[in-house]
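Quick note —
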Amino acid sequence: MKLDDKFRIERGQAYLTGIQALVRLPVDQMRRDRRAGLNTATFISGYEGSPLGGYDLALARVRPLLHEHDVHFVPGVNEDLAATSIFGSQIVHVLNESKYDGVVGIWYGKGPGVDRSGDIFRHANLSGTGRNCAALVLGGDDHVAKSSTIPHQSDLSFYNFGMPVLYPGNTQEILDYGLLAIALSRFSGAWVAMKMVTNVCDGGGIVDLDPSRPEITIPSG
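Predicted structure written out below.
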């Protein structure tokens, strides 16, 4: 047994913190895409801040694993530049030079960063996502201002941007909802947000791992 088994095993059970589940999420999506015959990649960028303050560190610790699955992590200088970079990953087809079938973009930041990047999110969501692409926005909310100057609630901003919002309540739901959010973005063309709160990010639990979980049925017609 190795410490990184929690990221490598594909079936069974493992203990994950909320942040570790967010690390595993893009890896699971890349595995799912490979089984579907898609040569995709993931691009992650954002700006640290509680409750997602440890996400960048957790990603950096498993760079070899990320590299194996074509997951590319580039921390943002600030929230705006990170969001613009994710926007760029969704219009890569404009250059017609990509070696990938599509790119899954993941942005992360806390509530004030969501506010700061609102103009980019609004235009990016209206522009949509590329073929076999997807855009997932992770908004860290600190309702009681535990580590923030003011309390914040990002779901209202996401509604205003026209983004669907999923709200995981435990570690298992981070994995399940995250994969569903990516599928929803890929199907609809919309950017999809996940609201992340402190007790879920800092908490943890045993998760059930299965390549077919969750079962996702794409509407036909």
